[in-house]
Amino acid sequence: MKKLVLFSIFLAMVVIVLGAYTRLTDAGLGCPDWPGCYGQMLVPEHNATVAAANAAFPHRPVESHKAWNEMIHRYFAGTLGLCILAICIMAILKRGQGLPLKHPLFLLALVGFQAILGMWTVTLNLLPVVVMGHLLGGFAVLSGLFLLYLRLDKRIFQQQHYNFSDSSVKRLAKLSAIGVVILIAQIALGGWTSANYAALACTNLPICEGNWWTQIELKGAYSVPYAENYEFGVHSYNERMTMHILHRAGALITFGYLLWLGIRLYRSNTYQILKAAGIVLIIALAAQVGLGVSNVVLSLPVFIAVAHNAVAACLLLVMVWITYHLSRPKGGLRG
Fold first, then answer.
1. CA distances in angstroms from 2 to 14, 52, 213, 223, 232, listed in the order given
2. Of 46, 109, 259, 327, which has the fewest CB atoms closer than 10 Å, so is most exposed?
3. pTM of the prediction?
4. Tell me: the pLDDT tens digits for 273-298?
5. Contact (Cβ atoms closer than 8 angstroms) between residue 7 and residue 87
6. 70, 209, 217, 231: which one is catalytic?
């Protein structure tokens, strides 16, 4: 079961990367129906099937490359769902062996809801709140699988001796949990910015160009105006600029807090697992900030933008790992 969970973690990361690539190549509506593509399980490519698809969906002519981007994402997401179903079946069959059961069942429900969000993404024509929810759901599935792996890995439960008090460990655990909340909030801000096509609303550093402070529109930036189609965004420039600026402000807060936490972990003791955790956190954080700046300077190249999503997922896994370790200090830090 542990190997299947590990494979599912890898698959969940691939799904997140493919989802980001689909979004960034404007392929979210590459297939205007769900779960198939123009009424088929494969992308129409032959002249006859393309003609039939165009006749059935005249408002959305077939664009093969976009349709394949979307369908490949769906194929991998479907495979991930089957893997999680298999994990649940194994957990039920081996229930007497002390394996977690509620955790896999929760993941199955979560991935089922993800499928519904995926459907709504298409049927509601990229409604931003659904697109952002779908992104956050993907991160939740990945984190849930990783947490399940940590629970299954017996090496996690090997006791290690350490030199600082339980109260210090508990404080670090609370600080780490706060870091997880801050990071998730920042990922949500990034998801909202991306879902509303606001990633290039500001092209200057460190904040934005012009008299940006006179153009802030908080109320409109986080509203969902009615539209028949949300592709390429429906908000005004000022509203998109506001989304972008708040994402940058969130990045500064997240960077400052996680950097401080990483340094504190590194300096907390000579205990190697904490020192390693601090180093990994700081490296992942630096990579994420570098990618974010590169997105602005290089005008959002697809590869870097996709990497920005992937590293955000890795950063979240690092924080989940740290929080899990620090939250289980019975008699010693579990390492």
1. 19, 46, 51, 43, 41
2. 46
3. 0.92
4. 888 999 999 999 999 999 999 999 99
5. no
6. 70
Enumerate helices (H) and strands (E) in the chain, giving the number of each.
10, 0
Does the active-site annotation cover 45? no
Contact criterion met (CB below 8 Å) for 16 and 80: no
Q: How many alpha carbons lie under 13 Å from residue 60 in its C-beta half-sphere?
A: 22
DSSP codes of every residue in 8-77: HHHHHHHHHHHHHHHHHTT-TTSSSSSSSBTTBSS---SHHHHHHHHHH-TTS---HHHHHHHHHHHHHH
How much is the pLDDT for 333?
Answer: 40
Structural contact between residues 285 and 255, judged by C-beta atoms closer than 8 angstroms:
yes
pLDDT digits (tens, 9 = 90+) for 228-282: 999 999 999 999 999 999 999 999 999 999 999 999 999 876 567 888 999 999 9
Whole-angstrom distance, CA of residue 17 vs CA of residue 307: 8
DSSP output for 190-232: HHHHHHTT-TTS--SSSS-SSSGGGS--HHHHT-----S--TT
Residues 74, 35: contact at Cβ < 8 Å?
A: yes
Residue 227 has pLDDT above 80, yes or no: yes
Q: How confident is the model at residue 17 (pLDDT cuts 50, 70, 90)?
A: very high
Place of tokens 């199955």: 108
Q: How far is CA 305 from the centre of its chain?
A: 13
